[in-house]
Amino acid sequence: MSATVTAVSSNGEYSFTKPNRDSITLLAGLGVEGDIHAGVTVKHRSRIAQDPTQPNLRQVHLIHEELFAEVADAGFEVAPGALGENITTRGIDLLGLPAGTLLHIGEAAVVEVTGLRNPCIQIDAFQDGLLKQVVGRDEAGRIVRKAGIMSVVREGGVVRPGDTVEVRLPEEPHRPLERV
C-alpha cells in the first residue's frame, strides 16, 4: 500500500482548525514540533481533565482527503486542516488500518497508528450538522467514526505535501482501531 501527503497543518494555540504549512517536523515521542497537541502526556483538554498523566496517544492526527469529497456530497465544504488534522493523505484507507500499523512518511518520519479520532461536538460548531457526517452507525448499529486516525511519532523527520506514505502492517492477528 502507498499513499501521498496532500497537506500538512499545525497550530501552536488551541483552535479547532490548523493552518496549512509548507512542512511540519515530527519529533520522536512528542508529535508535531510547535503544535499544541505535542507532548508525552495528553494535551487534549477533555483528556487532561480526566487524567493529565495519561500517555499521549494522539500526537499526530491524520485524515484522508477522500472524506472531504464524501461530506461535500452532503453539502459541506471542508479543506485540509479544517478538522484539526496534522497530515492529510490521499490514496489509503486510513480507517481500515489495524492498530500498530507503521506509516513511513517522507524520507525519515515514522508514526505508529494508535486508534480512531473520537469526533466531538466542536465539529458541529465548525459547520452545523457535520458531526453526523463523520460519526454514524453501520447496518448492525455499531458506531462508525470517519474523522481520521491518531498516531504517535516513532521516528522524527520533516513531512511535506507530496511526500509518499508507506504502510507497514503489524504481525497478525490484527487489532481493529478503537477510539483514542
From TrEMBL:
Pfam families recorded: MOSC
The record's annotation in PROSITE patterns points to:
MOSC
* Residue intervals of the MOSC domain: 18-168
For this protein, the record's SUPFAM superfamilies field holds: PK beta-barrel domain-like (SSF50800)
Q: Gene3D superfamilies from the entry? A: PK beta-barrel domain-like (2.40.33.20)
How is this protein named in the record? MOSC domain-containing protein
Organism of derivation: Streptomyces koelreuteriae
